[in-house]
Design brief:
Elements: H1 5-18, H2 42-48, H3 56-81, H4 85-96, H5 99-107, H6 111-124, H7 129-137, H8 155-175, H9 177-188, H10 201-211, H11 215-219, H12 221-242, H13 248-262, H14 271-284, H15 289-303, H16 308-311, H17 328-355, H18 361-366, H19 373-379
Length: 380
C-alpha cells in the first residue's frame, strides 16, 4: 500500500477505540490514509490513543525514531557482550546494514522492536519490564517461557508477562467476544499468504508440495502445518527444559527460531528480528569458532537484499503474486537465502541443547529454580 502501512494499522485501531468501535474493524476513518489489518492485542490500540494528537505521518516518524534508538541500544549491548573484536565488529556492522531492517522501517512494523526488547532484557538483565512490553506488543515471545523455568532470575519475566496479557486482554475480550474471534483467527488460524512475499520454511514446504505433487501434504495442508507447529514446539520446549545445557539465552533463541520455522506468515521484514537472534547467539557461542562462523554467515545472508527486483516485471495491480509469471527457479532463488539460515541456526541450537544430553523430568522438577542465570551465562 505504501510507507507506514503496518504502523497505520495501529493508528487506525486507536481511532476506532476512541470512537468506541472495534479496533479489528477495517472501516474508513477519514484520518488514516491506508492501513493493514490490526492483529495485535487490544491494549496496543488502547495505549495508541495517546498518539492521536499527532498526524499519522508524524506518529510514524516517532515510531521510526524509537526503532533507531532500539537499534542503537542493541549495537551497544552486543559491543559490550561479544568478546572477540572482529566478531563483534562484523556483527554490529551487519545489524546496521541489513535490508530487512530498512523494510521494517518502511512498513512501520513491530517485529524488530519486539525481539529487540526481548534481547535487551537478556543482554542487560534489566528485569521483566522490557519483556512484558514486548509480549504486549506482539504475543509470540511467550514461546520463550520454557527457557525461564529453571532459572529463578527469569521467573518474574514469565509470571508478569502472563499476568499482564491476561489482565489487560481477557476482560476486553469477555466484554467484546467478537473481537476475540477476529484476534484468534488473524494470529492462530492463518490461511493464505503463500506466495513470493513469503520467506518462511512453511512456504518452502508449500512450493515443494506443489512442484513434486505431494498430494497428501497439499490435500491436508492445514492439518499438517498446524500439527507440525504444535508437535515441534512441544518437542523443543521439552528439550529446552530437560537439557543439561542450562543457558537461558540458548533456550530462548531456540524457541524463538521455532516460531519462525513453523509460522505460515513469515515475511521479509521478519528477518530483521531473526538477524538479532543470530547476533544474540554469538554471546552464547563466544569461543566456538564453528558456531560463530555459522552465526555470522547466517547474519550476512539474512542482511542481504533479496534478488526480487531482478525478476519482478510490471503487471496488473490485480495480480496478487507476481511470481506466477517468473521461471520456477526464481522463486527458490529468492526464498532459499532466507530460509536456509533460519533452519541452520535452529538446527545448530538444537544440537547444542542435545549435545550434553537430557536430565530426567523428576530431577528437573526437584531442582527447578535453583539455577542462577548469571552463573550459567558465565559458565557458557
Amino acid at each position: 500500500m505504501g510507507r507506514a502501512e503496518d504502523f497505520n494499522a495501529i493508528y487506525h485501531a486507536a481511532v476506532n477505540v476512541q470512537r468506541d468501535i472495534s479496533p479489528y474493524r477495517k472501516n474508513q476513518d477519514g484520518i488514516t490514509p491506508y492501513f493493514q489489518a490490526f492483529r495485535y492485542l487490544p491494549i496496543v490500540a488502547i495505549v495508541a490513543q495517546s498518539i492521536l494528537f499527532l498526524s499519522p505521518r508524524t506518529a510514524y516518524l516517532v515510531w521510526v525514531a524509537i526503532l533507531e534508538i532500539l537499534l542503537a541500544f542493541l549495537v551497544y549491548g552486543f559491543y559490550k557482550r561479544i568478546q572477540k573484536p572482529l566478531v563483534r565488529d562484523v556483527a554490529c556492522l551487519l545489524l546496521l546494514l541489513n535490508s530487512p531492517y530498512l523494510l521494517e522501517i518502511h512498513m512501520g512494523q513491530f517485529t524488530f522492536a519486539t525481539i529487540a526488547l526481548c534481547v535487551l532484557t537478556m543482554l542487560f538483565s534489566v528485569g521483566p519490564l522490557l519483556y512484558v512490553i514486548a509480549i504486549l506488543l506482539k504475543v509470540f515471545p511467550l514461546v520463550m517461557i520454557p527457557a525461564f523455568i529453571r532459572h529463578r532470575n527469569y521467573w518474574g519475566h514469565g509470571i508478569l508477562a502472563l499476568f499482564f496479557v491476561f489482565i489487560l486482554s481477557v476482560p476486553y475480550f469477555v466484554q467484546n467476544p467478537s473481537t476475540w474471534t477476529v484476534f484468534f483467527r488473524r494470529n492462530f488460524m492463518l490461511t493464505g499468504g503463500l506466495g513470493s512475499g513469503n520467506y518462511g520454511f512453511v512456504q518452502l514446504l508449500y512450493m515443494v508440495g506443489n512442484d513434486f505433487t505431494l498430494n497428501f501434504l497439499m490435500t491436508n495442508w492445514d492439518i499438517v502445518v498446524n500439527s507440525f507447529r504444535v508437535v515441534l514446539f512441544i518437542t523443543v520446549a521439552f528439550i529446552v527444559v530437560l537439557s543439561r545445557n542450562h543457558n537461558p539465552i540458548l533456550g530462548a533463541c531456540t524457541l524463538l527460531l521455532t516460531h519462525f520455522v513453523t509460522y505460515q506468515h513469515v515475511w521479509e521484514h521478519h528477518m530483521s528480528g531473526v538477524l538479532v537472534i543470530a547476533a544474540l547467539l554469538l554471546v552464547v557461542w563466544q569461543d566456538r569458532l564453528k558456531l560463530i562462523t555459522i552465526s555470522l554467515v547466517s547474519m550476512f545472508l539474512l542482511a542481504l537484499p533479496t534478488p526480487f527486483a531482478l525478476f519482478d516485471i510490471p503487471s496488473a495491480p490485480s495480480l496478487l503474486d507476481p511470481a506466477v509469471n517468473w521461471p520456477r527457479y526464481a522463486s527458490y532463488l529468492i526464498l532459499l537465502p532466507k530460509v536456509i539460515p533460519v533452519l541452520v541456526l535452529f538446527l545448530f541450537c538444537m544440537l547444542d541443547l542435545c549435545k550434553e544430553g537430557l536430565e530426567s523430568p523428576l530431577r528437573v522438577i526437584a531442582n527447578a529454580g535453583h539455577l542462577s542465570s548469571s552463573r550459567t551465562l558465565r559458565a557458557s
